[in-house]
Amino acid sequence: MKHRVYTVPDFFEGEADLLNQLFEEGLPCLHFRKTQRSIHPFIDLLVQVETKYYSKIIVHQYPELVEMFHLSGLHLTESARRALSTEALQDLINEQHKNQRQIGTSIHQKTDLYLLPKEMDYCTLSPIFSSVSKQKYEPTVHWQAQDLDVPFSLVALGGISVQTLETTYHQRGFREVAFLGAVWNDLSNVLQNYRLLCKKMNALTP
Q1: Alpha-carbon distance 170 to 136, whole Å?
Q2: For residue 8, what are the domain limits?
Q3: H runs (alpha helix) in the chain
Q4: Any residues with CB less than 8 A from the CB of 44 and at least 6 apart, and which?
Q5: Total of domains in the chain
Q6: Through-space distance between the first and last CA atoms of the chain, rounded to whole angstroms
Q7: Structure pTM?
Q8: Which residue in 92, 101, 97, 93 sits closest to 58, CA to CA?
Q9: How far is CA 74 from CA 66, 97, 132, 179, 191, in A?
Q10: 133-179, pLDDT tens digit by residue?
Q11: Is 75 in contact with 102 (CB distance < 8 Å)?
């Protein structure tokens, strides 16, 4: 079962050290997503992450960081994607692929899913369950990955935890998930939380 981890919305002291430790544990993909509107804190954090891990980081919001740090790729939020014309979106996808980068986006409604360009690399669907990190953020769509015929990868996001992984895999049909609250809900136990999630995923995957 493939997985990725999202950063918490706000920067915090010691974050870079924890990210380096997660990568050392085997984290294959990090989504660098923050509410901060200035690019400078993003840069300040990235320079503290070991350069060998840059190829495992997907950044939200700032495409220039992808090139500046040779990151894995760019994630378009729903609002950022909708702000682009069809032509501009296709051009951005082509540019990322030309530079050997990946590009993905977020979807919250099924109707939007089938409007995406087929060249997208992945798409996060959320929330699958009640959010671990956001209060009163509940699913409005019953996502079943096996019923969705699209050419790109589908990533389950929202409420994914040790308790919901089995349902996500067996009943909902997802083969890739993204964690946020299940990893970061207790900053003193981030590595332990991550190890428990990996242990559960390994038990589910043949």
Answers
A1: 26
A2: 2-204
A3: 15-25, 40-46, 63-69, 78-82, 86-98, 110-113, 165-166, 181-184, 190-204
A4: none
A5: 1
A6: 9
A7: 0.95
A8: 101
A9: 7, 11, 24, 18, 26
A10: 766 678 889 999 999 999 999 999 999 999 999 999 999 999 999 99
A11: no
- Enter the tokens of residue 9: 């919305």
Q: Give the CATH number of the domain where residue 56 resides.
A: 3.20.20.70
Q: Which tens digits make up the pLDDT trace of 30-49?
A: 999 999 989 999 999 999 99
Strand 153-157 with 30-32, pairing: unpaired
Q: Where are the strands (E) in 93-169, listed by range?
A: 102-107, 122-125, 153-157
Residue 147 · residue 179 · CB < 8 Å: no
The DSSP code for 72 is: S
Name the residue with tokens 């544990």: 25
**What DSSP string runs through 157-202?**
ESS-STTTHHIIIIIS--SEEEESHHHHSSGGGHHHHHHHHHHHHH
